[in-house]
Write a structure and sequence with these properties.
heterodimer; A: mainly beta; 7-stranded mixed beta sheet; 4-stranded antiparallel beta sheet; B: mainly beta; 54% strand
């Protein structure tokens, strides 16, 4: 078990409010990722991290920021939530060296912006 | 043009049949390929990975890769109702892409008794 947890599991928030989602891992993996999943779009990369304080943008990063001050925590912040950010958010880690392992995903956060 | 395309589905097969899921990708330098299974309301779960041309078998699952045609497929033999899920194809480009995977949009598979 890769030991990855996301919190909260569900959240309803109002348009214009900031929201922070947390991803926590217990095994000191270097690479961590935030994806969103929407019907018809599959999983799309928002941001990723390749080490403490090392982060970069993915394909759908507008309106999102991230922080990684510790190896185990990767935070995703919606700076001012909009209805278009209603989605299911998944955190993923890359266990092991190299790309041959595939990701392990957290359980997801279902976010609704009203 | 989407980088990873899957057959749109939904795909419906009878119990015991072979389910065939297909995926094409646009980046010729892609190195690693993965199939994930996702049950409704759950997170994706890795079921197969393949890196070299040819077939790779694991139980009832066979992944097939043809890099020349930029094509990867997943065959599920003796399909069971418990195989009903969304199947996601994912591709790793390699190089300095920091392990990033690009996913297809998914194919919904229903296995009916």
């Amino acid at each position: 078990d890769a030991g990855i947890t996301q919190s909260p599991r569900h959240k309803v928030t109002e348009t214009g409010t900031p929201v922070t989602l947390r991803c926590h891992q217990t095994e000191n993996h270097r690479y961590m990722y935030w994806y969103r999943q929407d019907p018809g779009h599959g999983l799309r990369l928002i941001h990723y991290s390749y080490g403490v304080k090392d982060t970069d943008k993915g394909e759908v990063s507008d309106g999102y920021s991230v922080s990684r001050s510790k190896t185990e925590d990767f935070l995703l912040t919606l700076e001012s939530a909009t209805s278009s950010q209603t989605s299911v958010y998944f955190c993923a880690i890359l266990p092991g060296q190299g790309s041959n392992y595939g990701y392990t995903f957290g359980s997801g956060t279902r976010l609704t912006v009203v | 043009q989407k980088e990873v395309e899957q057959n749109s589905g939904p795909l419906s097969v009878p119990e015991g049949a072979i389910a065939s899921l297909n995926c094409t990708y646009s980046d010729r330098v892609s190195q690693s390929f993965f199939w994930y299974r996702q049950y409704s309301g759950k997170s994706p779960e890795l079921i197969m990975s393949i890196y070299s041309n040819g077939d790779k078998e694991d139980g009832r699952f066979t992944a097939q890769l043809n890099k020349a045609s930029q094509y990867v497929s997943l065959l599920i033999r003796d399909s069971q109702p418990s195989d009903s899920a969304t199947y996601l194809c994912a591709v790793y480009a390699g190089g300095t892409s920091y392990g990033k995977l690009t996913f297809g949009q998914g194919t919904i598979l229903t296995v009916h008794p």
